[in-house]
Fold this sequence. Notes:
Blueprint: E1 2-3, E2 11-13, E3 17-29, E4 32-44, E5 50-54, E6 58-60, E7 70-79, E8 88-97, E9 100-107, E10 110-120, E11 123-132, E12 135-145, E13 149-157, E14 164-171, E15 174-175, E16 183-184, E17 189-192, E18 195-196, E19 204-210, E20 216-218, E21 223-226, E22 232-241, E23 247-257, E24 259-261, E25 269-270, E26 275-278, E27 281-283, E28 289-292, E29 298-300, E30 306-309, E31 319-324, E32 330-335, E33 339-340, E34 343-344, E35 365-366
Parallel strand pairs: 16-23, 25-33
Antiparallel strand pairs: 1-3, 2-3, 3-4, 4-5, 4-6, 7-8, 7-14, 8-9, 9-10, 10-11, 11-12, 12-13, 13-14, 15-18, 17-21, 19-22, 20-21, 22-23, 24-27, 26-30, 28-31, 29-30, 31-32, 34-35
Amino acid sequence: MVKAQKQELRTVITPLARWKLLDGEAGFDGDIFTIASGKAELRSFCTGETLNLVGGDRLTVPSCPADISGKWGGNYTRRLPLETGPPVGIGLDLKYQGATLQGEVTLPDGKLNIVSGAQSEKSFSIEAVGVIGGKERRLALSGEARKGEIDFQGLETGLSEKPLKLLGEVHRFYIADSALPESALGQPFRFDLTAVSTNIENAAFRLTSGRFPTGVTLDPSGLIAGVPDETGRFDVQLAAEDGLGGSFEQKLTLVVKKMVVVNRFMPAAIVGQPYSTELQVIGGKPPYRFSGIPPKGMVLDAATGKITGTPTTTRDRPSQFTIRDGQNNSEISDVFLEVHGGTILNSHFLPEASLGKPYENKFEIVGNTTPPTWGYLDSISKRSAFS
């Protein structure tokens, strides 16, 4: 949970998104962003979309597969028989060979070759072998891999009679954005890239291949801006450097259409709860006409683009809508409006408790079709209970 102060607006960068709390309380639980009160602005790194959210909104923020090829640096610790050893520096140089991971592992006293490796969704595993100091050394690592950080555990053999358990992490400088939002012909476009490093202020960007549409340029600060005057898909590759020796390359595509829906990702609806939103379009020539099938229990107003109603079933896939302008131009857009089932509205933001004093709080649940059964997944505290 992050609570904003009026005089201090803080931008938070997570693996999924960059968000700023303008007022109130908000936070992530896994991939679900909840704003309990106030206002927040969130940009998805996976889609490039920026959303303005208000109290009560919930949103499942999408994640993109992470390309973990490249150079990483960090530390790990060895679990010795009686204690945890001091931090040990480690570097990874990972490369894809088809569907497998290859490369090198660098340790303070030598290098190991990766003989097997794999990545699936957010997880990864590698096994590296080499001879250091005349003895065979072997590392087997596995864990969670994100675009800028890998958390791992594993085993190291060759230092003692028995394998040593390991725990560590590596990280790197990287461009967080994996996609750009769609843009509309003749409409202003502005997108500032996010670089993550210990030296963010000095990150410099440049175009290494491809081109942006005429009218749109990349500034060394990472700002992509302009007014596109041609439609199409424009594939580019960008490079960024952090001034500390870190560099990263990212492929992106800027799609320019005659008109686009600028709010394709919407706050989630809840079964049995009234919901209202509106498709917002830029480009083309009004008036617009809308067609498509929203989630069950909801209706689309063909003249205004408003989606209203009370959803009756859950839904986790996009709805496809067609927009037609006054000159009979049309575009198809996938709109992500999830419908959640049973949802605890206030589970993330409980009032603080005081040691030794009675405490009581009532959870608010909506969207459930049968009476809920309450229980703990993890212990909250001693002497606490549900009723």
